[in-house]
Automatic annotation (TrEMBL), chain A:
Example GO BP: transmembrane transport
Entry's transmembrane regions: 27-49, 89-113, 125-148, 178-201, 237-258, 284-306
InterPro entries: ABC_transporter_permease, MetI-like, MetI-like_sf
Originating species: Streptomyces aurantiogriseus
Signal peptide residues on this chain, from the entry's feature table: none
Domain ABC transmembrane type-1 positions: 85-305
This protein's UniProt keywords: Cell membrane, Membrane, Transmembrane, Transmembrane helix, Transport
Pfam short name (any one): BPD_transp_1
Family: Belongs to the binding-protein-dependent transport system permease family.
Topology versus the membrane: Multi-pass membrane protein
Annotated protein name in UniProt: ABC transporter permease
Superkingdom, natural source: Bacteria
Automatic annotation (TrEMBL), chain B:
Transmembrane segments annotated in the record for this chain: 69-92, 104-126, 138-160, 181-206, 241-260
A Pfam match: BPD_transp_1
Cellular location(s): Cell membrane
Domain ABC transmembrane type-1 stretches: 69-260
Record-linked PANTHER family: ABC TRANSPORTER PERMEASE PROTEIN MG189-RELATED, ABC TRANSPORTER PERMEASE PROTEIN MG189-RELATED-RELATED
GO CC, alphabetical: plasma membrane
Record protein name field: ABC transporter permease
Membrane topology: Multi-pass membrane protein
Organism: Streptomyces aurantiogriseus
Keyword entries, A-Z: Cell membrane, Membrane, Transmembrane, Transmembrane helix, Transport
Family of this protein: Belongs to the binding-protein-dependent transport system permease family.
An individual GO BP term: transmembrane transport
Xref: SUPFAM superfamilies: MetI-like
InterPro entries tied to this protein: MetI-like, MetI-like_sf
Amino acid sequence: MTVAVERGGRVTGKQDRAVHPRRPRNSYALFLLPGALAFLAVVVVPFLMNTGVSFTDWQGVGSPGWSGLANYRELMDDAEFWESFRHSLFMVVAMAAVPTAIGLVLAAALFDYVGKHFGSRTAAVLRACFYLPQVLPIAVAGIVWSWILAPENGSLNEVLKAIGLGSWQQDWLGDPDLALYSVMGVMVWVQLGFPLVVFMAGLQRVDPQLYEAAELDGAGWWRRFAHITLPQIRPEIYVVLTWCTIAALKVFGAVYVLTKGGPGGATNVPSYFSFTTFFEKTQVGYGAAISTVLTVIILALSLVGLKLQTRAEDAEEGVRA
Amino acid sequence: MTTALRRYPVLVALCLAALFMIVPFLIVAVNAVKSPAEYSQNGPLSLPDGLYLDGLKDFWERVDYSQKLINSVLISGSVAVLAVVLSVLNAYAIGIGRIRGRTWVLAFFVLANMLPQEALVYPVYYLSKQAGLYDTRLSVIIVFTVIQAAFGTYLLSSVLGQFPREIIEAARIDGATKWQVLWRIVVPVSRPTLGVLLVFFFIWTWNEFLLPLVMLISNDNQTVSVALGVLQGQRLMDATMTNAAALLGVLPALVFFLVFQRTLTRGIAVGAVK
């Protein structure tokens, strides 16, 4: 995206200088002042405080005592911490990998199949259905699903009973062996609309002649999917994977409402773990260390994602030019 | 004919998948209008015998839902407007002013946007207590204005980077100040993008959970999301109440969705790839 900024500037930059040879460029910096101050107060200072506190044994009251890397050493030996990050990987599968894969197939099917044979209106209505859960507050989605998955009188169990699979009834969120998978299922439902919408928008800039030529050459739907759709929307795939992975690492509301990390820590995730450490155990220093580790991982992933995206966009520009 | 026959299974499969996505909404709607007796007798899958709205009414009064709606609208609305203004100011300096070191400034906003709220939540909680802003709607408005503006700055900077410079140069030669150029030319021309941002900021803030949960503890200040989430978290609700809660939580989202559908589905694509 920075690439676009540079690109736009190069064309007009010269005229710019010709009209005002010595315009002091920095006078625009004044417009950045309110933003800079606000960010300092709400993001920079709290973030530095949090990082600082992670090197202390602070309990939220009194003055914090310096403890160096003690919190981080403790984290390394804390089974609960590792367990919560292991659950994060499951969340990445449920919120990034699976929705991206399903979203790609759905987007291609809606765009290349339904859109062509049944009109773009039909495709738009179907897309809207898939996107709907994305607008729902996660807390509300959690209420809806915890009611559906309830062991007594829950809709899922009732459906199973009605179709003669009564023996499959489960305590979906209360069974430690099942709870994580139930939460994962809910997250797929929540997340699916995002990749779908981004991919369908991406497909709109693919030259229709590519599809027509492939179709004339006798390429079937799956071959067109693999050889045209996938390579053409690679930038979108990277964007979606990066965003969804980050969202998966941050997942909090769903866990809070569905399971509160339980039963017995079976669905604990880093953000919920840091939340309880901060506000229930009031081990602020330790909670800060957890969130700092989470931050480092997320920022590293963001940088990798941005890099892949820029490279894919450049490659695409190269092909077009 | 054969192609037509082959076509329909795909459409049917897609429609079934779409139905699966909206079934939870339908079940909630159906059960929210059943009386508790009917629910416990017939279970969640039967169609309602009649329209029983007392459950919804009771729940509405018990949680003072009007107040929650007012809080959510006030917070999300203020954040949407303020965050757009802040984004415009930042992006004007970066995208059009091309201030020195803009790549770094932009990288900073991108990183701020990625930062998990968990890394800010305790200091924000502590500092707001010190400043006497804890448990006020204002504190949540301030925090989310900044957080949403990080994304807005990132998006708008690249949009304004491609703003036709001839227009700005012409206005400057005619004697317009930078301030006038911003409000009389840049903002009106970019109105469609700003509209998308406004809608997104509103809905994102409406849906936020962690920070409002920490910052708003008194009943009078809580948002819809927080109030419903806390109720569910306490496991104090019976099935009928949960249903009422779910339906009342779903309805505003449904309204936004129907009103802003076009903006949402188009905007998200712009936001992701720009």
